[in-house]
Amino acid sequence: MYRSHTCGELTKNHINNTVTLAGWVHKSRDKGFMIWIDLRDRYGITQLIFDEERTSSELMEQAKNLGREFVVQITGTVIERASKNPNIPTGDIEILVSELKVLNASLTPPFTIEDTTDGGEDLRMKYRYLDIRRNPVRENLVFRHKVAMAVRNYLSERDFVEVETPYLIKSTPEGARDFVVPSRMNEGQFYALPQSPQTFKQLLMVGGMDKYFQIVKCFRDEDLRADRQPEFTQIDCEMAFVEQEDILNTFEGLTRHLIKEIKGVDVGEFPRMTYDEAMKRYGNDKPDIRFGMEFGELNDVAQHKEFTIFNAAELVVGIAVPGGNSYSRKDIDKLIDWIRRPQVGALGMVYVRCNDDGTYKSSVDKFYDQEDLANWAKATGAKKGDLICVLSGDTHKVRTQLSALRMELAERLGLRKSDEFAPLWVVDFPLLEWDEETKRYHAMHHPFTSPKPEQIELLKTNPGDVKANAYDIVLNGNEIGGGSIRIHDKETQAMMFDYLGFTPEEAKAQFGFLMDAFEYGAPPHGGIAFGLDRLVAILGGQETIRDFIAFPKNNSGRDVMIDAPAAIDTTQLQELSLKLDIKA
Length: 584
Ligand code: ASP
What we know:
By secondary structure, the protein is of the alpha+beta class. The chain has 3 domains: 12-104, CATH 2.40.50.140; 139-272 and 424-548, BirA Bifunctional Protein, domain 2 (2-Layer Sandwich), CATH 3.30.930; 291-415, GAD-like domain (Gyrase A, domain 2, 2-Layer Sandwich), CATH 3.30.1360.30. The protein is built from 17 helices and 22 strands. The chain has helices at 57-64, 121-126, 128-131, 135-157, 198-206, 244-263, 275-282, 299-302, 308-311, 329-340, 370-380, 395-412, 458-461, 490-499, 504-517, 532-539, 570-575, and strands spanning 18-30, 34-41, 44-51, 71-80, 93-104, 161-162, 180-182, 190-192, 211-219, 231-240, 272-274, 296-297, 315-321, 350-354, 360-362, 387-393, 423-427, 432-435, 440-443, 470-475, 478-485, 525-531. It has an 8-stranded mixed beta sheet, sandwiched between helices. α4 (135-157) crosses α6 (244-263), α4 (135-157) packs across α16 and α14 (490-499) packs antiparallel against α15. The chain binds aspartic acid. Aspartic acid binds next to β21 and β22.
């Protein structure tokens, strides 16, 4: 038996008990005649004491030689502490050690194993196993486990079955590049790692599984944007014999349950907003609705004067920044610099100060009078003391820019509170999305998404206007999940592939298995997938998903601890019939 108790459980009730503990040497204080050691394990810290009067000189010597992070096993008696520590559960007691065994020595760790460590991100990632010994990292992993268990229990209680789907597959198009794996036994051929289990979960519906879920790794070879991981985890779900309404209700239930179970917060019925409305009101298909600052479109009240910049714009749109009139000229100049950064890309910004006496002062006073500005204030909902920020240009671009500004200002104003939860559904996404680069339509969600049945005809004339039975679930400005009702007949699916520019041969080669399955009694079905990493981070009140992943990759997609990816040797390449022709 390595231990009778953990380092987190001994209290006054155990006084005079003989106990055996095992753990890491967290800290030691050596006063010469007395030595205290904090012994740590996953469950907490227990103080050990060695003193000249009660401890043998041999044991004193042993204790003196213990270094930080040594792994030790001790046996001793629980005694009451002279100076108590009310901050930890074991703070009333200490162990007078009678036996000590070093189970393993340790080098001095490259950073301190404390809640706030002196280790930088790179160092912590290189020695992630030491980082995991720190409370905040360990707590995040335990938290993630709790969320995953709550999901499993909830879905399992509702007849969902967790089914594993394969990782070595063929391309599933979710809009990213595939990671590929060469097949040794099939020369010159490759598997693709799943970007999601999309086609398999649909085949499970054809197979009659009715309700499926899986907490599953997905792989997408994308240029890494901040806080994305090449491998990430989804809560992937699919149901048969459902309409959009059934899916929304089921997974609204799951999300509400998680927020209640994990955070103790009751959220009411989720608002629903169409994609068009979200874009118009927030410039964003994942609006953060914890705060206002809604967009006010100003074309009608800003394009009737001689201000050519506005007159030439497709959209003139503004937001009212609460209390923003207190910004100095310098503050506003800084804001303008901020939106001009290439990441946001606006050319400039017009602003209006809403004075306390009801008058306005704008950066375009030459063109607009008080009545005009009062109209702008009305359209943006600006009040006395606010600042109206106005951008103009191409509709989509300007919305994206103003949305970035809205989020930034809300962050600065402390309006994005991590203990507030504002979920919503965004519905009626466009089916297709025009891609300037390839001059082609792409599926906005994925090619298996069903158009709104009543709009199928519209596909022929105005494909860009067709809406899909597709929905996203949004929490605090993050898309935490998305899904759709699927096409379940061969003809519609073939038509979709055709619109997406696949020849019938290409469609058959890539997705013949799915279209074949649709000919054997495929039930109507639909589903959704949540991004578990992000969901956990938001529920944990934090922004970075890396903090909730045991062994994350860095921004260049590298695991710096195991040093992957790495070259493979020539024999391995030969076995895989691969030739590398890279000039050094
Ligand atoms: N497979 C989709 C995704 O990964 C989710 C879904 O449509 O259920 O986004």
